[in-house]
Specification:
246 residues; alpha/beta; Rossmann fold; 2 domains; six-stranded mixed beta sheet
């Protein structure tokens, strides 16, 4: 079953074309990754999927709903883990989850046990009463993941989930994703880490300059083009640049 479908998606910021006529499908139970360098258009494409910004042209549907016509219905069924830390610095770890639950009209009798369950999942129960300012970068990323899962979303969207983390913290987040995948969760993420894309994604769309250059599973791409995923990426982007310069 296709949960997300984009056709000829375009996004302009003034004269800048951030997303240049891309099309893709994301199926239920799939971990789909947008792979590419900073400025490739990954975050913009994700922002359109979770109704943060409208497309300039083309169409995007999520759960069969148009992102420009039914954004509220879509937002109620998704969880978003942003690239930037937007946790409330004046609240504790537990309070951040409870306050966020109000956006989904979750009563305390539902939100509180759910918050404890998620703190166990991301191994932050012992930090429940700690102020956000005292957390490490890795702990904040894990708390952002817990917050994104509060409403038990049908689609989890993660923008650079391990950006800036040390190897230990990065692997901790990957373990969380492995557990979610084992439960059949549908995940969409952006990353510029080749190892991350190869480890957690069932399918990747390699992007550069607002365009999708190639799509497929990491294994298929490596078999098709030879070498590891990083070599495939460099080969594809290098070929694209040569074609543009020709």
């Amino acid at each position: 079953m296709v949960l997300v479908k984009a056709e000829n998606l375009v996004k302009h910021y003034g004269t800048l074309c951030a997303v240049d006529s891309i099309s893709f499908e994301i199926r239920q139970g799939e971990c789909f990754g947008f792979l590419g360098p900073n400025g490739a258009g990954k975050t913009t494409a994700m922002g359109i999927i979770y109704c943060f910004m409208p497309p300039t042209s083309g169409s995007v549907t999520v759960f069969g709903l148009d992102v420009t016509e039914q954004p509220s219905a879509i937002k109620s069924r998704i969880g978003v883990m942003p690239q930037d830390d937007n946790l409330d610095p004046d609240l504790s770890v537990f309070q951040n989850l409870i306050v966020y639950a109000r956006y989904f009209d979750m009563p305390k009798k539902v939100s509180e046990p759910r918050a404890w369950e998620l703190l166990d999942f991301v191994e932050l129960r012992d930090k429940a009463d700690v102020n956000i300012k005292s957390l490490s970068g890795g702990m904040k990323r894990r708390l952002l993941l817990a917050r994104a899962l509060l409403n038990d979303p049908e689609l989890l969207i993660m923008d650079e989930p391990t950006v800036g983390l040390d190897p230990h913290s990065r692997h901790a987040v990957w373990e969380n994703l492995d557990h979610l995948k084992a439960k059949g969760s549908t995940i969409v993420l952006t990353t510029h880490y080749m190892e991350e894309a190869e480890k957690v994604c069932d399918k990747v769309a390699i992007m550069d300059n607002g365009r999708i250059i190639e799509t497929g599973s990491p294994a298929d791409l490596m078999q098709r083009h030879g070498g590891n995923l990083e070599k495939v990426y460099l080969h594809l982007t290098g070929r694209k640049l040569r074609e543009e310069l020709a």
